[in-house]
Design brief:
The protein is α+β, with helices and mostly antiparallel strands and 471 residues long. It is 38% helix and 16% strand. It contains 15 helices and 15 strands. Strands 1, 4, 5, 6, 7 and 8 form a six-stranded mixed sheet that branches. The longest helix has 23 residues. It is flat and about 80 Å long.
């Protein structure tokens, strides 16, 4: 914690030494200074500058090679998740607070509920009574709708406009209006549901079908040989891992500046750098679990000439019937051949995509029971990234590919364990908002890199030069 860090700095000579060789009696400081420094860092033009400094030192020492392993981990938000009633009431409070005195009076004039919306919290109600709950939800929704009606068509300042948009969002995502004009909670979950008005960027997320969380996702890329973190990112909790992958690799993908990076070591220094020296001519190899096996990401990696070591899930079919990989898909010829040897043409379907329908050919097929029970025969859908997925599945069938994947990919799990070992500031965010959480996560990654440098024996030689001295 910040208080503990200040205490260590005041009474531990090692902390004074690490801070620049300060004298033992050098005075301490108030712990809120650290809070202010992190806030200024997050709001600056380069919030990742400390992490970037650690990465530059690693590159100068030849610790960053041409392999990257990607993964993500949940970051629990620093606020409580709100239910629908609390969300709507908090949204109304936010608009009233941002409106000012004159406009606020006009807004309060259209409010019907006996509530001044001054204090935070959940309104009083017999929540065990379904009828009472229904009346409360309808009254809150009508107050919120009336407030938005007053704001409609006005020129609003940025703060009030943001508060109004948030209120409109929470009203629209959870409610529906019946034919009787009564608002009720909808029996659905909005795909991008706001879960808190205190931190509107936090979202429901899930790492697996059984592991759900509220907050953000922290994404990292590491060099698996040196176990150095090379990139970080933070997204909303409902963001897929593959959507963030290209950003994590932006500095490493060809034509984006990685081969011309002046911090990379010259090839002539290989003897000094050892086995971890970076070869700028080597193709980048990217490792990831099945979350990174999306067709769009595979297409981007192929276009960049990357060696793809990301796992792709095999296709499946209900009740153990023939999966899609038992069919021969020839996108150039525009045909699909089934296990019985029947060939069907690939045709376009409404709404985009392609499909091959075998129709009546399945009626008398001896393999029909193992293939489909559909009356109109088996159909095979062809996605726009079908070729990329087929090539990736073929590559990972190679035993050498699987051995390399199993030896390399799990290293990122240990690095995530280093990042998440503390509850606050690690697994649980200690700030609100995606930008601040991202800056804090980057700072944490910098600290983990520094700890790794101590294990590796990283030593400053001269100028920008660093070297690894075995301990």
């Amino acid at each position: 914690s910040d208080r503990e860090a200040v205490d260590r700095f005041t009474f531990d000579a090692r902390w004074k030494y690490a801070a620049g060789g300060l004298a033992f009696d050098y005075p301490g400081f108030v712990h809120t200074v650290l809070v202010d420094m992190r806030a200024r860092l997050a709001a600056s033009d380069r919030p990742d500058r400390i992490f970037e400094a650690t990465l530059e030192a690693a590159k100068a020492a030849g610790l960053v090679g041409r392999k990257r392993v990607l993964d993500s981990t949940p970051l629990y938000d620093a606020v409580a998740t709100m239910d629908t009633v609390t969300l709507i009431r908090s949204g109304i409070r936010g608009v009233l607070k941002a409106a000012g005195a004159d406009l606020g009076a006009q807004l309060r004039a259209v409010i019907v509920r006996d509530d001044d919306y001054a204090a935070a919290g959940k309104p009083v109600c017999d929540y065990d009574d379904a009828a009472a709950r229904k009346v409360l939800v309808d009254a809150l929704a009508k107050d919120g709708t009336a407030v938005l009606g007053v704001l409609d068509g006005r020129e609003l300042g940025p703060v009030l406009a943001q508060a109004g948009a948030l209120l409109a969002t929470v009203l629209g995502q959870d409610l529906e209006i019946g034919v009787d004009g009564v608002f009720a909670i909808a029996r659905r979950v909005a795909p991008d549901r706001v879960i808190s008005t205190v931190d509107p960027q936090a979202r429901h997320g899930h790492k697996t079908s059984a592991h759900r969380f509220d907050g953000y996702k922290g994404h990292i890329a590491i060099d698996p040989d040196a176990e150095v973190i090379t990139a970080t990112a933070v997204t909303a909790g409902n963001t897929g891992d593959a959507a963030c992958a290209v950003g994590l690799l932006a500095a490493d993908i060809p034509d984006q500046g990685s081969t011309d990076d002046p911090s990379n070591t010259d090839p002539g220094d290989d003897a000094e750098q050892g086995d971890n020296s970076q070869d700028p001519e080597a193709p980048l190899a990217v490792y990831g679990d099945a979350a990174y096996g999306a067709g769009s990401l595979l297409a981007d990696l192929e276009a960049a000439g990357v060696q793809i070591m990301t796992k792709v899930q095999p296709p499946v079919a209900p009740a153990g019937r023939f999966a899609k990989d038992r069919f021969v898909v020839d996108t150039e010829a525009g045909t699909v051949t089934c296990p019985a040897g029947v060939v069907a043409a690939i045709g376009a379907i409404k709404g985009g995509g392609q499909i091959a329908a075998f129709g009546t050919a399945c009626a008398g097929c001896p393999l029909a029971s193992a293939c489909t029970n559909a009356k109109d025969g088996r159909r095979i859908r062809i996605g726009i990234y079908e070729a990329e997925l087929v090539r990736a599945r073929a590559a990972q069938a190679d035993p050498a590919w699987r051995a390399e994947y199993r030896a390399t990919r799990p290293k990122v799990e240990r690095k995530i364990g280093h990042l998440m070992r503390r509850r606050h500031g690690g697994r649980r965010a200690r700030v609100r908002g995606q930008a601040k959480v991202a800056a804090d996560f980057s700072l944490l990654a910098a600290a983990v890199n520094l700890a790794r440098f101590g294990v590796l024996g990283l030593t400053h030689v001269s100028g920008p030069r660093w070297a690894v001295t075995p301990i």
